[in-house]
Amino acid sequence: MTFTLTEDRLVETMRTQATIGGTENGGLHRLALSDEDREVRDWFMAQMEAAGLETRVDEFGNMFGRRAGADPDADPVLVGSHLDSQPYGGIYDGALGVVAALELVRELNDRDITTERPVEIVNWTNEEGSRFQPAMQGSGVWAGAHDIEAEYAKTDVDGTALGDELERIGYRGDVPAEPREAYDAYLELHVEQGPYLEEWGSDVGVVTGIVGFVWGATTFHGEADHSGPTPMHYREDALVAAADVIGGVRRIPGTLGERTVGTVGYMDVSPNSINVIPDEVTFTWGFRDPDPSVLDEAKARVLHECEAAAEREGVDWEWEDRMRVDPVHFADRCVDAVEDTATGLGYDASRIFSGAGHDATHANAVCDTAMVFAVSEDGKSHNEDEYTSWADCYRAANTVAGAALELAGRAD
Ligand code: HGY
Ligand code: MN
Ligand code: MN
Predict the structure, then answer these.
(1) CA 86 to ligand 1 centroid distance, Å
(2) What would the pLDDT profile of 56-66 be if each residue is shown by its tens digit?
């Protein structure tokens, strides 16, 4: 008998979580460690407790719920994603993976299924990396990629420290932020956030790996001056220098790999006044590619662009690293479990490499890992118009749930 979830409860749970930090345009404003994040965490904790899970929160706010298996010493299967969102994100990004994990344990309870291995579900802290960098921060601390004290000290644009926010919302837990045991596997369901599954006419994506990232920030220091009487050759305009580099970030990917992407997403201009020559501009740059050497080359090229722009404009500049993760390739054992489950359920499944980052990148350093993608309509994401049909959510959720059950094994 195939194992599938209860569709209307999945939809209802998705609708409920979407009301927490919901925006008037039908998206989500649920920044990491904000009041909205605390509210959705409280909701998730209540759901895990109602499902009879043994819950815990680690020192970085990662939330876990454990459902016992027949063999308490067997390495658990971990399933989850994240509940934080972009400033104006969609209701599926991250949340679908956490809700599918919750529905998995609820369905196991309803059917009174005993798994061989324990099954754990997780909500990772600050996957988005919007308010605090880097992205995938909670899973990164847990996997040992970051020093927790250094991450506690990270600040948002208002200078608020992450550790203080974790404390303020009551989610600086008491267990070490590290794997407390070996894990058999980690599975994550996520919306694709790209156009390919829809283009290919696929029902679900069988994710084989994730691109690498390199993120940084550059600040140009010019000279504030009156925009009227200051002749052009007198100016030290920080924004003109930044504009040159931003054009460079757009051009660099075309000279590198066919999947290389480059983005400037954040910029702060001071004093940001119509009649003052900008004296300080900070902006972020980010490149992604499946090949780590391409990431190195892209970073070298953007720093060269900064140097040249500073020279041309006669301004000073500095930069800082914000994030570097290498590409990852998932274990065949887990990828096959996902693919076998999807095809066993009669779904059209396509293998795909992720262009978005996910907590699975870090989980992959701890145990065998794989992901399931749900179709993103028009490939849209990090946008309130992000949309995945409930039918596509359901197919993808069944796939991750069935694969988790396959890996956890049945004891009854
Ligand atoms: O940036 C990413 O790919 C993810 O949304 N954090
Ligand atoms: Mn996400
Ligand atoms: Mn995201």
Answers:
(1) 9
(2) 999 999 999 99
Tell me the CB-side half-sphere exposure of residue 168, using CA atoms within 13 A.
13
Q: Ligand 3 centroid to 384 CA: how many Å? A: 12
Structure tokens that stand for 98 in this block? 């956490």
pLDDT, one tens digit per residue, over 242-293 is 999 999 999 999 999 999 999 999 999 999 999 999 999 999 999 999 999 9
CATH of the domain at 353: 3.40.630.10
Separation of alpha carbons 356 and 340, rounded Å: 24
Q: Which domain holds residue 190?
A: 7-211+327-408
Nearest ligand, measured from the Cα of 212: 1
Q: Is residue 116 part of a domain?
A: yes
Among protein residues, the one with the nearest Cα to ligand 1's atom 1 is 357
The reply to whether ligand 1 has any atom less than 6 angstroms from the CB of 325 is no
Q: How far apart are CA 125 and CA 128, in angstroms?
A: 9
Is the CB of residue 127 below 6 angstroms from any atom belonging to ligand 1?
yes
For the chain, what is the domain count? 2
Q: Is the peptide bond before 87 cis (omega within 30 degrees of 0)?
A: no
Q: Of 283, 309, 325, which one is at a domain's C-terminal end?
A: 325
